[in-house]
Design goal:
Mean pLDDT: 96
Largest sheet: 2 strands, antiparallel
Structural class: mainly alpha
Strand content: 5-15%
Shape: globular
Number of domains: 1
Number of helices: 5
Helix content: 55-70%
Order of helices and strands: EHHHEHH
Length: 80
């Protein structure tokens, strides 16, 4: 799947019924350390997101999203 811009990803999440605060909470719930800080940097500063990136995998797991749900959201977000 093609990369999404930060705008596309965020609109895709919202249009899928997820609040951006849920992503923030998922990051905040991570154990303190480099992985948490890396996730925070990715969420706050990345300009594009790649479907297979570790950040997407970690957050989708924390939000309890299936691979099919992520793919559907991703495909829809491409048009935003």
């Amino acid at each position: 799947m093609p990369p999404l811009t930060a705008r596309q990803l965020r609109l895709g999440l919202v249009n899928s019924g997820l609040a951006l605060a849920q992503v923030d909470a998922a990051i905040e719930a991570m154990p303190d350390g480099p992985e948490k800080e890396t996730a925070r940097i990715e969420w706050e500063y990345a300009t594009t997101f790649v479907r297979g990136h570790a950040f997407i995998t970690a957050i989708s797991g924390a939000l309890i999203l299936s691979e099919m749900e992520i793919d559907k959201m991703w495909s829809t977000a491409i048009d935003f």
